[in-house]
Amino acid sequence: MKILCDTTYFLPLIKISIEGIPNNLLLELLIESKHDYFFSELSIFEMAAKGLKFIIKETEVTLQDVMNGLDAMQNDSRLQILSWSNNPLILELASKLRAIHQDTIDCFIFATAICNCDFIITMDHNFYTRITKDDSIIKEIKSLNKKFRFWFDDLSKDPILLKT
Known about the structure:
With 164 residues, this protein is of the alpha/beta class.
């Protein structure tokens, strides 16, 4: 299975803990699983931006932490990077998702996952809920990737397939 990890799951790499998620969840996935794991190139930007936000707030996160985390993410052979710009369907789907969700980066990350993978691992229940309330978006997603699923939070529950 091809699984795209939303940016949130990489934040522990730059010393930002996520409530409800063990800091080593990503590492456990990479060690124990036979799946192929991906991330969007936009997650690199999103992590850097989040890291800078924490640095400015004078938390314990340092610029070196951010650089080390980004380096670890980009150089782990168990992770593969996906571009949003190599497939015009990603831009088309992202524009449709943007009509229901205000975070453009999330729209591109979700569209990248839908066009390239079997699952997205995410904590964004709000975005998923908005998708499930829009029949035209559901049809679009199903036309691109019939079996695409959403896997949430600490991954303790089964992935969810969109219903038409």
